[in-house]
Write a structure and sequence with these properties.
alpha+beta, Arc Repressor Mutant, subunit A, 5-stranded antiparallel β-sheet, 4-stranded antiparallel β-sheet
């Protein structure tokens, strides 16, 4: 599945619950909040009208109404019926609830814990015994402080290591929100050092301090935290060995081409130095197809790394 398709699927999945809570939202508001152009949002809404339960008749489909620029969504009748779960489904939900309830500073942890208790009572002591889940992501230790800054509306001071520039910087940030994306926690806000909106992965935060200075409230919701190519970003082509196929899922790719012996990925990088560090970190499982400058930088970095660790 291409990255564009994944972004579209993510947008649709995020729009539905939000529209249920905000009936009458405008198409332009959806485009601004969830990304994409108004035309793309209308195409997504049209696709949503074909989604539902097998049978696909009256009451089985999600109903989408666009009147002028206003959008209303009504779920299929099935979703209003009492929920009946199999033992397998109930155990799966219990595991998910326990995992998320253990995430530090999660606002929904209380309701999730109560839901998990109800599921345990329904399943019985024997079925629920021995089920334990721990869900923690690197950087989660900063969540309580970030939540405090968001609740109190305070500026935060970060010591942050940039992956693209491989440097540690000190900066003040006006926080907008915190979100999970691609297995990592992100703080999104206005960076005063960069004088613009930025996404900060919490696992790259070396130190975080909540300041007494009030932070302005965000006027617009930020886009999902994911690398967005800019004009002039270099295009990179790598040939990945079978052991490194996961890189194609991890990167935001423009093209993925299957070959008999390898997988070829084409993507854009913020800098060639970042791409060179990626190639070296893959330890021979990636070969640079282009550009030639990247191959040279990766070779130089590999040489310098060997010399640094040589006896």
């Amino acid at each position: 599945m291409s990255s564009a398709t994944l972004r579209r699927l993510e947008r649709v999945l995020l729009m539905v619950p939000w529209l249920l809570e905000h009936p009458g939202a405008t198409v332009s508001e959806l485009a601004e909040r969830f990304g994409g152009s108004p035309e793309e949002v209308l195409r997504d809404l049209d696709t949503l009208g074909y989604c539902g339960l097998p049978g696909y008749g009256g009451g089985d489909l999600v109903e989408v109404t666009v009147f002028g620029d206003r959008v209303t969504v009504r779920m299929a009748d099935f979703f209003a019926r009492p929920l009946a779960l199999s033992v397998k489904e109930a155990v799966t939900l219990l595991l998910a609830a326990r995992a998320l309830a253990g995430v530090e500073a999660l606002p929904e942890a209380g309701p999730l814990a109560r839901a998990a208790d109800k599921l345990e009572r329904l399943l019985g002591a024997d079925a629920a015994a021995g089920l334990t889940v721990e869900l923690k992501a690197p950087g989660a230790e900063h969540l309580p402080a970030v939540r405090e800054a968001l609740d109190r509306g305070r500026v935060v001071h970060l010591a942050y290591r940039s992956e693209s520039k491989a440097e540690l910087t000190e900066r003040d940030v006006e926080p907008w929100t915190i979100t999970a994306h691609g297995g990592a926690w992100y703080l999104q806000g206005w960076c005063r050092l960069a004088d613009g909106p930025r996404d900060f992965r919490l696992d790259r935060v070396r130190d975080l301090e909540v300041l007494a200075e009030p932070a302005p409230r965000a006027e617009h919701a930020p886009a999902p935290p994911v690398y967005r190519a800019k004009p002039g970003d270099p295009e990179v082509t790598l040939a990945l060995a079978p052991q490194a196929r996961w890189v194609a899922e991890w990167l935001v790719t423009d093209q993925v081409r299957e070959h008999d012996t390898h997988l070829e990925v084409v993507f854009r990088a913020a800098t060639l130095d970042w791409a060179a560090r990626l190639v070296v970190s893959l330890a021979g499982q990636a070969r640079v197809v282009g550009p030639e400058e990247l191959a040279q930088r990766a070779a130089e970095l590999a040489r310098a790394t060997r010399e640094l660790h040589a006896p």
